[in-house]
């Protein structure tokens, strides 16, 4: 293992065994369910099944960003001891958490000049966040420093794609992504949206189709058209909000459409799950073009 620590927030949704194996540190991102606070930011106090079952019953989940003080405390821990650390943080396009990290780091650097703390705006969420952390772990294992890894990730993150579809349009309406009329009408017609993580790290509605299977087929086709025909992808990550059967079906669609060494399936955590609702499917992979190039080619 390398000489620097990789720190993620709990939104990254990496399996606990992977986090432990690679020595990651995790900053909790709080959430509440029906007014009850959960400060560990993940599944320690409630299981994924209980959480999504509650959402299906109409429970209300709310999320809270990681505040300035929490980042100052976390950064200071490493700066005081002269240890290097790389913090990979939820997209600035989805949360003010990264802005809090930036101001906190300025404060800590003023107190500890030359501290070896590096922060990365992952411009993604859930499995996209975790995907970038896995790349960082691989880079560290090859002997690169925290600074070298951070600089490499700043380039790499622009070719890491995140695509989503959701089962219930009302969650997008509550998050301000869709009007109530469109959400109600779309739900009645069985409309399923395709969303992506845009170049600026925001979530954008790109296309709509009718039916679940058609939505998953559209996601698979989006992966295919972003890579060269002869590309062999190393890893594709699928995350889901309590719909493992659909995630498995989608994995088989991907394997039939493109060349990939492994497809990993994981559960989306409570933070992003609160905004996508039960039944969402997301896919993350490394494309052969940047997000900006993709946008210009297919949606420009």
Share in helix: 40-55%
Largest sheet: 6 strands, mixed
Low-pLDDT segments, ≥5 res: 179-189
The Rg value, from CA coordinates, equals 19 Å
What gap, in angstroms, lies between the N and C termini?
43 Å
What amount of the residues lies in strands? 15-25%
Assembly context of the chains? single chain
Number of beta strands: 13
- Provide the structure class: alpha/beta
Q: Order of helices and strands, N to C?
A: EHEEEHEHEHEHHEHHEEHEHEHEH
Shape: globular
Number of helices: 12
Read across the widest sheet, the strand sequence of neighbours is 10-9-8-13-11-12
Average pLDDT figure: 90
Can I get a quick summary?
This protein has 300 residues and is an alpha/beta fold.
Notes on the protein architecture:
By secondary structure, this protein is an alpha/beta fold. Helix 9 (212-225) runs parallel beside helix 10 (244-257). The protein contains twelve helices and 13 strands. It has helices at 16-21, 48-56, 68-81, 97-111, 127-141, 146-156, 170-174, 180-189, 212-225, 244-257, 270-276, 291-299; strands at residues 5-9, 25-27, 31-33, 36-38, 61-63, 85-89, 117-121, 160-165, 191-197, 203-210, 232-240, 259-267, 281-286. The chain is 43% helix and 24% strand. The strands form three sheets. It has a six-stranded mixed sheet with strand order 10-9-8-13-11-12, with helices on both faces. It has a four-stranded parallel sheet with strand order 2-1-6-7, with helices on both faces. A hairpin with a 5-residue loop joins strand 9 and strand 10. The protein is globular.
